[in-house]
Amino acid sequence: MTIRVIIVDDQAMVRAGFAALLSAQADIDVVGEAPDGREGVRVSRSTHPDVVLMDVRMPEMDGLTAAREILDPPPGVVHRPKVLMLTTFDIDDYVYEALRAGASGFLLKDAPPADLIAAVRVVASGEALLAPSVTRRLIADFVQQRPAPRKDPALRLKGLTPRETEVLELIARGLSNQEIARHLVLAEQTVKTHIGRVLAKLDLRDRAQAVIFAYEAGLVRPGDSG
Known about the structure:
Elements: E1 3-8, H1 12-23, E2 28-34, H2 37-47, E3 51-55, H3 63-71, E4 82-87, H4 93-101, E5 105-108, H5 113-124, H6 133-145, H7 153-157, H8 162-172, H9 177-184, H10 188-202, H11 207-216
Parallel strand pairs: 1-2, 1-3, 3-4, 4-5
Helix pairs in contact: 2-3, 3-4, 6-11, 8-10, 8-11, 9-10
């Protein structure tokens, strides 16, 4: 199945470069571009992409505001693509807030081309782009410096079984499904089932929000070793 992508960035050369790179892949189709967040929302609503590559800092409407509008659309708008934030900085306030809003991860603009292609595929598959240690560091840093927890996150943890709590902790430490399966001596499909139940019980969109929730609930603390 072809992955439909739109690119939202205020630099024309960045858009052109990313579009050329992604369009050269047999399984990726760039279906639209936009120079700012406001236009990005419009293009997303009209083209129904699977993944939106969203720059963080743009005129008219920044990437954070645009991501919120795309991920929390008004009544009547049913399409909600995955949003992958693009940033020049590895520690960026906007990126953390975007993850909280439901973005599926972030990627540095100077990442190798292969990383961009892989990121689009990972996010399109429904996974969050949380493997890079810098992402976990970013989440940990901002939870530590500027906590803004949801309502009683620690209390909500009590709705999980001990095994589900264990799985959530390992997600927050950055382990993949395969690594969690090895760690807990479980089948990978069983791990996926546990993750699905964790997300459903906690009303979380994806792994990115699960990581943030785990830090906010105190299940994992900044500086803990993996």
